[in-house]
Amino acid sequence: MAKVFVVAEQREGRLKKSTFELIGASAAGGNETHVVLLGEGIAGLAAELGHYGATKVHVADNAGLKFYTSEAYSKVIVDLLNAEKPEAVLASHTPTGRDLMPRIAARLNVGLASDCTQLSFDGGKLKVRRPIYAGKATVEVEFLGSGPQIATVRANALGIPKPDTSKSAQTATLNVSLSDLKTKVTEVVKGSSARPDVTEAPIVVSGGRSLKNAENFKMLEELADVLGAAVGASRAAVDAGYRPHRDQVGQTGKVVSPTLYIACGISGAIQHLAGMRTSKTIVAINTDPEAPIFQVADYGVVGDLFTVVPVLKEEFKKLKEH
Ligand code: FAD
């Protein structure tokens, strides 16, 4: 049994589902699963973490931690890890995890395996698998030397365990001192979208250059609304100004791993596949039967998206109504 630390992510008092995946994977490996939870007014979230298998939750509830900054968050976490000396540390491969964990690894002088899609424990040893060459191959990584083995894990890659409300975690309050920081976030200006983020949504409906303009993406939004999905886009669609960059899926966008990915009029360039090929089920709609997207698709529709998408929307609507 290893001592594993999970770095929890919450925004505005709501825990991210990817945190539950990490706790579940650690607990399923028979580990003593600790969670570190940072923010302001978040102490009440500790109970929910216990339902997913956390043994102990270390809470740093402080006004200086209300907004994420790598400087403040890494300071608190590094101090805790130095005191607790866990065998492994897991965080989600979200924008926050991607920013925070390399800094923590550098400060602890240990290695970091990023964007992992599988992990397993053998005693105190963590083994992970991560895609390389834009997802064309995967490598298995083991950690050398001493110190915590650190990995960031792609959201939706592990699956969320069923919560068990009879389970609870011990809580510990961290006394943090943030007096000597060099940076402070004074305001966060939110984007206008009320949709789920592509990295977190269980279903993503994506569109490409073939949508022709921003207005036509409304059609994908309507389908997404029926499915409770996020809307993604290829880089060509983003570069053309049809969607904001935060929706871009791919090598230079976001990496997603939803249960269902519906690619509408996307050719399937290698850089796009790098961001979505680990989706559990891929549906492609394309007029060109030779489009490379069909090589990774589980289901393919050779057809015009302007005809197929409205039909799909109506059919899903009917299914939901029954
Ligand atoms: P196209 O390649 O133009 O494909 C459009 C597709 O739509 C075609 O297959 C066509 O048959 C189909 N089509 C046309 N009309 C219809 C219709 N009415 N109904 C159905 N199908 C239709 N791309 C990304 O997506 N994400 C990235 O992160 C990314 N990063 C990159 C990084 C680098 C360094 C480089 C060099 C490129 C990157 N790209 C990325 C760009 C990538 O190479 C492709 O150019 C891009 O993905 C193409 O987008 P697309 O599929 O929307 O457009």
Q: How does this model look, in words?
A:
The protein is globular and about 60 Å long. The protein has helices at residues 17-28, 46-51, 70-84, 95-108, 217-227, 235-239, 270-273, 293-296, 305-321; strands at residues 3-7, 10-11, 14-15, 32-39, 56-61, 88-92, 112-116, 118-122, 125-132, 137-142, 149-153, 170-173, 203-207, 230-233, 260-264, 281-286, 299-302. The strands form four sheets. Strands 7-11-6-1-4-5-12 form a seven-stranded parallel β-sheet, with helices on both faces. A five-stranded parallel β-sheet has the order 14-13-15-16-17. Helix 3 packs across helix 4 (95-108) and helix 5 (217-227) runs parallel beside helix 9. With 322 residues, the protein is an alpha/beta fold. It contains nine helices and 17 strands. Helix 2 (46-51) links the parallel strand 4 (32-39) and strand 5. The site of flavin-adenine dinucleotide has 28 residues, from helix 6, helix 7, strand 16 and helix 9.
